[in-house]
Amino acid sequence: MVGHAYSYKCSHCGYEEYYKQGHGYLVRPQHYDEYIASNQKFFHYEIHNKIETLAKDHPDLEIDATFRVFKCPKCQLLHGKVQVNLTEGDVLLHTSRFKCMKCRSRLKLTNIHRLKRATCPACGKNSFRRQNLATLL
Ligand SMILES: [Zn+2]
Ligand SMILES: [Zn+2]
After folding, report:
1. Which of 106, 131, 107, 101 is nearest to 117 (CA)?
2. Is the overall model pTM greater than 0.90, yes or no?
């Protein structure tokens, strides 16, 4: 259950934001029974409904939630999201897909370890740079 936070700061306007990657306290792999028992209202309602629907046919449903960073291929903006994979055994039944809030493009998963620079969400300049690695969640 270890995650990292990455800090990005714009060298132009000073805007700063954190992005998380990995697992956290509630964002982690768990069995359906555990999910229901804990009565979490953590996920988006669409994902919650999907979980409920799939669990009817897949009693061994596993919910794997992870913080991930996505990038819009069009505007190069970063988006921190909780990606949820719903699996049973080795079968992937559902995975979250996200769209850019600005241009509605399908977001692409990005490797934040390699991403040194992106577009600043505040000023739109390509000067949003990764700071040194931050502490654990
Ligand atoms: Zn976009
Ligand atoms: Zn900026």
Report:
1. 131
2. no
